[in-house]
Amino acid sequence: MNTLEAGESTAMSVSDYDRAKELKAFDDTKEGVKGLVDAGVVNIPKIFIRPPDEISEKWNCHRNDIIKVPVIDLSDIQRGDRRREIVEGVRIASGSWGFFQVVNHGIPLIVLEEMIDGIKMFHEQGHELKKEYYSRDRKRTTAIMISTIL
User: Fold this and answer.
1) What is the spatial distance between Cα 77 and Cα 83, in angstroms, rounded to a whole number?
2) Please, which residues bridge with residue 134 across strands?
3) Closest Cα partner for 135 from 19, 30, 9, 20?
4) Which of 16, 27, 37, 56 is 20 to 30 A distant from 84 in Cα terms?
5) Highest mean pLDDT among 22-26, 51-55, 64-68
6) Helix/strand/coil for 44
7) What distance in Å separates the CA atoms of residue 1 and residue 43, rounded to the nearest whole number?
8) What is the DSSP letter of 48?
9) Predicted model pTM
């Protein structure tokens, strides 16, 4: 798999790099990023790096910038006007960031910790057990969903 060394430019000619072929090879392993880590890959594969012309100015952050992940506060969600405000916050955060942090959701800490433990246990299982869940098919109800923007 093609990777970039620190400081190496992502600019290259189409004839030098077949992104679709590399993405298919990555998908065919059905191991995801953890498979790359387990295989000892230490450089970021080129399929995960967006070309400069695809990167919006808003994502070009400087090292001194402080990045603040959007926070969605669910307190008072049952109040009609507050509910609309929360929905609008989710819409904006999803559209501009693609993710957000949720606070005051009422889920006990023990449940969150057990969920994280379950995720870790799943990903530490052998490749053969996880392979059947690896998919980009959004219609599947149970899958290890890999980014659809690759």
Assistant:
1) 5
2) 144
3) 30
4) 56
5) 22-26
6) coil
7) 10
8) G
9) 0.50
How far is residue 61's CA from residue 74's CA, in Å, rounded to a whole number? Answer: 29
Q: Which residue has the tokens 């379950």?
A: 118
Q: Please, how many CA atoms are within 13 Å of residue 73, restricted to the half-sphere of its CB?
A: 3
pLDDT at 83: 93
Cβ count near 149 (within 10 Å)? 8
* Residue among 40, 54, 69 at smallest CA distance from 150: 54
Structure tokens at 95: 């559209």
Is residue 32 a contact partner of residue 127, using CB atoms and an 8 Å limit?
no
Say what the pLDDT of residue 23 is: 84
Tokens of 98: 């693609």
